[in-house]
Amino acid sequence: WAGYFTSRPTLKYFERTASSLLQTFKQLTASPTKRVRALRAEIDHVLFQLTAAVGLVNHHDAITGTSKQHVADDYVKILAKAVTSAEALIGKVYGTSLLPQDHTESDKYTKDVPVLPTVFTMCRLYNESVCTATQSLQAGETAVVAVYNPLPRARTQQVTLPLNTHARVSVFSVGETALVTSDLLANQNQVSAESAPYSLVFSAQNVPALGSAVFLVRLADKSTASQTDAPAVLKAEKVPVEAGPHLTVSSDQVSVTFNSATGLLESITRLDVTGAEGKPLTAQVSQDFAYYKSFGSPGIGNTATLKDTRDPHLKNIQPLRDADSVNNQPGGAYLMRSATPEEVPTRLAAEKKVDLSVVRGRGLSEVHQQFSDYASQVVRVRDGSPVVELEWTVGPVPINDGIGKEVISKFTSNLRTGEKGRSKCFTDSNGREFMERVFNYRPTWDLEVYEPIAGNYYPLTAAMYIQDTTHDQQLAVLTDRSQGGASLKSGEMELLIHRRLVVDDNRGVEEALNETTGGMSHYPDWIRSGDGITVTGKHYLLLSSVSDGLKEVRTLMDELYLPLVPLFSAEPSTVKHFEALATTAAAAAGSAENKVNQADKTTVLGLELPVNVHLLTLEARSNKELLVRLAHQFAVGEDATLSAPVSVDLFQLLQAWEPVSAQETTLSANQLKSEQLAGKIQWPTEASASTRTTPAVASLTAEGKAEVKKGTQLRGAANAAGSFVVELNPMQ
Questions:
Q1: What whole-number distance in Å separates Cα of residue 169 and Cα of residue 184?
Q2: Alpha carbons 120 and 289: distance in angstroms, whole number
Q3: Could you say which of 2, 393, 471, 524 is the most buried, measured as most Cβ atoms within 10 Å of its Cβ?
Q4: Does domain 613-728 fall into CATH 2.40.30.40?
Q5: What does the alpha-carbon distance between residue 708 and residue 703 come to, in Å, rounded to a whole number?
Q6: What is 544-600 written as a DSSP string?
Q7: What pLDDT, in 10s, does the model give residues 484-512?
Q8: In the chain, domain spans
């Protein structure tokens, strides 16, 4: 039952981005400013709508991709409506937090505090290079781009803006009062008619925790088109055969080499990590696309099962003999099953060379690969990051041969990760602890193997990795959505990224998993139209030493789940305000150090959290109460330093809200922890440390009317006036 780990990959991606948006929405709308508090009724309405939609799409027949097509379409419709409302309100909240108002912070709080109209917008279709706010810019115009950091620590990340014009463009940091280096790239593969032909890429440096950095993006007019500080358009240039046996691109931290004869990735080198013999850490790593033929497809002559018309639940409890047969069970939305148990996947590139093109910019480099007429990839390295980013595009997957296809991205390395027949990998358990997975083995029972391919696939919420402890190497792949993954041989990892099938697996969906661009007609016809969908996604390849591997993986997991959130405004009044702010800041800055510190003043937190502590939730339950969840991100033994218990001063963290008390609740925050424990059945078990994440509800001052409650101490103590220390153990 491994197919649903990947089924409906676009829905899985939408759920992931909506879940991330939900946390960002909670943070921004928990602002202690009176201007945001004045929006509480509207905030509560939209928050309920988005929370309900995200919760609905996490239903076991939604996120799994095992619903009928028209039901999946309805899930998307509900989620899209909620996301649209949240994006609009985020723009309003962010605008009221940044721009000047007709009142001051010292004014008495009332429900009638005036707020500005929406001044910032968001762009949902970044993965398609679509953003109306930036694509509408014309030569001579300026836009404000604000990037919000939802992580509880400062971070640096490159930002990409879709543009419709190749006019010279410059990026100015308001906080640092300086021009920012940028690259303007021509988009080679536009996935839709609305996709921008160009992308502007620049780095947002040291964006503060739960804070923002603001940039002015200016498109030059004809009179300034020759300015030397603006980038020229970079286009991918095809790599000729005579260029040599290898193609290498590098950033300041990582280098990747391709074999010019095959067009495939060949090796990765960490320039900032020392490996054997004092040389940079290097691993031989290849990546390719292939597909398994789905069992039961008419095109391969498998005998499919008889159609079972009974109730879906009864099918699973009492399967028909034919449907339960090892020989006849087809693949479908639930089940992944290869044509034969030992099938060798078919390469998408067949025996052809993969075409290569290269782009070398000032802050990033790209290698474009064309595997077939329906599969391409951009391999990207960025300055300031050790990650190799692989942006793949697959589809429409052809099925005119009558064969359903399970498309995989396969990584092959020289890491020794287990004896023959006992390869080992690690996969995350719902984004928390990593579980050891051994080929054809289960730790709690004797496994009888029927399907050595599908039977060794596991669900990946965030990542999987392999380790070679002998050579101090770890290779990890992180995902942008839930997928299935396996390690079938030593040194290998493969991830199932797209599925297009032609028969049902008789497990309740009662239609083939065959998503098409035209969708499906309404009852009673249920007829599909259009070609198969095209899916674009990203894998993040990270080579590390074993000692630092989990530190780097867990840090990257947080950064991928909560990326920088760009917001845009081209309104003249907004642009004028930030241009004036930049001028004032530049005049007031007496040194380069002062310039850099301008951006550090925008964080709302009283302290930054270390990399092993995550701020899971920061939500205003009312204008007088916050819901706060903290989590220790490391398991026992994952890191020599970061797996240790860590203490956090909760009141110092939340000092902007002026907290007066805190109470420990259950994880769902609907019952006090003390009440829950009092009513809990006490089973006779050995004492063990709790591994649950425990939220706290902090009462806030509100015009001096907040009631001070005697809350239970959160496994910590109030060790000084105005201080409340919380201690978190690994995975707590």
A1: 8
A2: 40
A3: 2
A4: no
A5: 13
A6: E-HHHHHHHHHHHHHHHHS--EEEEE--HHHHHHHHHHHHHHHHH--SHHHHHHGGG
A7: 999 999 999 999 999 999 999 888 888 99
A8: 3-234+560-602, 241-559, 613-728
